[in-house]
Design a protein that fits this description.
The chain has helices spanning about 1-5, 10, 25-30, 115-125, 145-150, 165-170; strands spanning about 35, 45-50, 55-60, 65-70, 75-80, 85-90, 95-100, 105-110, 125-130, 135, 140, 160-165. The chain is an alpha+beta fold and about 180 residues long. It has one domain (about 20-170). The strands form two sheets. Strands 1, 2, 3, 4, 5, 6, 7, 8, 9 and 12 form a ten-stranded mixed beta sheet that branches. A two-stranded antiparallel ribbon has the order 10-11. Strand 3 and strand 4 form a beta hairpin. The longest helix has 10 residues, at about 115-125. The model is unreliable at about 1-10 (pLDDT under 50).
Length: about 180
């Protein structure tokens, strides 16, 4: 392994144990430096969309749609983002959530507990931390050699403190009987 990674793993150990027993919100956010996301993501407007089989609260900024809080569908509650993320962590009030996996599609989606959805709707704000997949670029899966040969810029780990400016307008979007 050392020949393949040329010592990379010795200098940059993965942030969690191989058995994943230490995947926690605090371990994740303390393992990396998170660059602040563009400040335009911090002030979002929410749109409530009531669908036949699910409801969604879509967060938009002048950069477009970037975050969905969903009720119903395949999961009771879930979050959707559009990027190749390995890990996403969200905190709102006293509720924390973390999901870590290898992305297979550009639309990142994960089930969340109802308590997190409720807290986001109650407070109208949340923190989000994301770890990008280092070997995806424009949907292309890369190996180390390809990435170095084509001088692909490394993905950044980002964080944002998000305030939903019109939270009062969307608090009733979710039917708690879904």
């Amino acid at each position: 392994m050392a020949e393949y990674d040329e010592g990379y793993l010795d200098r940059h150990p993965h942030w969690h144990k191989e058995d994943r027993s230490d995947i926690t919100f605090d371990n994740f956010i303390n393992a990396f430096y998170f660059f602040p996301a563009d400040s335009k993501f911090s002030m979002a407007t929410a749109i409530c969309n009531k669908r036949e089989n699910y409801n969604e609260i879509v967060l938009v900024t002048e950069l477009g749609k970037w975050f969905d809080l969903n009720q119903g569908g395949a999961d009771e509650y879930s979050v959707s983002l559009w990027e190749w993320y390995n890990t996403v962590a969200i905190r709102s009030g006293n509720e924390e959530f973390i999901y870590h996996s290898q992305p297979f599609v550009y639309r990142w989606n994960a089930p969340i507990p109802q308590t997190l959805a409720d807290e986001i709707l109650r407070t109208g704000d949340f923190e989000i931390y994301v770890e990008s997949n280092q070997y995806r670029s424009m949907g292309i899966m890369m190996d180390k050699e390809w990435k170095e040969e084509n001088k692909v810029f490394p993905n950044l780990n980002l964080k944002a403190n998000v305030i939903i400016q019109n939270i009062d307008e969307v608090r009733g979007c979710f039917d708690n009987n879904a």
